[in-house]
Every structure is written in C-alpha cells, then in structure tokens.
Write a structure and sequence with these properties.
By secondary structure, the chain is an all-alpha fold. Helices cover 62% and strands 0% of the residues. The protein has one domain. The protein is globular and about 30 Å long.
Amino acid sequence: MTTSFNLRLPADLKAAVTEQAKRLGVSVNQYIVSMLAQGAGA
C-alpha cells in the first residue's frame, strides 16, 4: 500500500535530490523513499 505525501523543498535541495536520483538512475520519488527509509532505520 502506498500513500501520497506533499513535500516542499528549497530549490537548491530539490536540484541536488534530482541530480542524485538521475546519477543513480532512479526516480526522485524512489530516491527520497530510500533516503527516508535509511534515516528511519527501516
């Protein structure tokens, strides 16, 4: 099951996240989910 979560990011952080996701070959959503999971210890 998935749910939606709106997130406001500063433009420079969004650019960095977008670049990292692109570099890793994943979507921005997938990258953010991965980072949140790591931070939450999941």
